[in-house]
Design a protein that fits this description.
The protein is mainly α and 104 residues long. Helix content is 38%, strand content 6%. The protein has two helices and two strands, in the order H-H-E-E.
Length: 104
């Protein structure tokens, strides 16, 4: 698989993991934050795609049985990512994307 094809797949994992962990940290779902964050093609083996999808579904199912109330303040700790670059080294997305926090 070419590096150009791997990068969007790895980015998908990070983009989906960030809001999943945001939900976990800011609701009473009682689930540990997701730690699956592959940074290379080799780390996608061993059922990583299935595990990733199960993590998303687990949070959605857990949300169905907890009361949703506003948390103050919100926990933004895990809204960061690292990614694999075509050279195979890890790169920080925050250098190329801006992050904003909404004013309360």
């Amino acid at each position: 698989m070419s590096p150009d094809a791997v990068d969007p797949l790895l980015r998908h994992f990070a983009i989906e993991t960030n809001p999943v962990n945001f939900i976990i940290r800011n609701t009473p779902v009682g689930i540990e934050p997701v730690t699956l964050r592959p940074e290379s093609l080799s780390e996608l083996g061993d059922q990583a795609v299935v595990e990733h999808d199960v993590n998303v579904y687990d949070v959605l199912v857990a949300l169905d049985v907890v009361p949703l109330v506003a948390r103050d303040p919100l926990d933004f700790r895990q809204l960061t990512s690292r990614r694999s670059t075509p050279s195979g080294t890890a790169g920080d997305w925050s250098a190329s994307t801006s992050r904003r926090r909404c004013a309360s």
